[in-house]
Specification:
alpha+beta, 3 helices, 4 strands, about 40% helix
């Protein structure tokens, strides 16, 4: 029983150990259409696990898949191609 518990704990911890949370401050987010267009752009990226667009705070929060990366150049390109500008990018592990 202890061996199973240790293995399950290791799988759970290692599955999220390399996921990044990326917070992007975006200028111009004002409506549900804005949120939908940003979500569609990022959901096409294989590294993206989840995305949340907070219109009140003009913040896009992305969680990457374990051991995947989404670099700032791609983020900037996707946001600007959608018609918005970035005011900041912050990353948490």
């Amino acid at each position: 029983m202890k061996k199973i518990l240790i293995v399950l704990t290791f799988i759970t911890i290692s599955g999220t150990a390399y996921a990044d949370t990326i917070k992007i401050s975006v200028n111009g987010l004002v409506c549900a259409f804005c949120a939908t267009s940003i979500e569609k752009s990022f959901k096409k990226q294989p590294a993206v696990d989840t995305i949340d667009v907070d219109l009140d705070h003009k913040l896009v929060t992305i969680t990457t898949r374990p051991q995947q990366n989404l670099d700032n150049a791609i983020i900037t390109k996707l946001i600007t191609n959608a018609g918005y500008s970035i005011t900041g990018i912050a990353r948490d592990k």
